[in-house]
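User: Please write out a complete single-protein record containing the residue sequence and its fold in token form, without commentary.

AI:
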Amino acid sequence: MDNLMKNIEFSKVLSLKDLVSYQEGQVISRTIAQIPSANITLFSLDKGEGISTHMTSGDAMVQILDGTAEITIGSDIFTVKAGETIIMPSDVPHGLEARERFKMLLTVIKR
């Protein structure tokens, strides 16, 4: 049977924020799981980088692992820090910007 999780060690205690590194001027991603109904991805965003406004067909939970993110959901802007989480609901425009560099775990549950 194939494992559903990938790019991550099994049966080992891990620090998620250490599994993705910062790269100057880049957004780095590491897919942990991707099935039709869900995606789990680690991201690092260098200061000044972002993910442009878009919509998804699933609810997206962002868990900030390091740094601080500026997250826009609809017309609202949120500052989310390490240890904090926010849900971006499906079919609502959202985007992220790194006012300072940050790392996040993104979990998307699709319909």
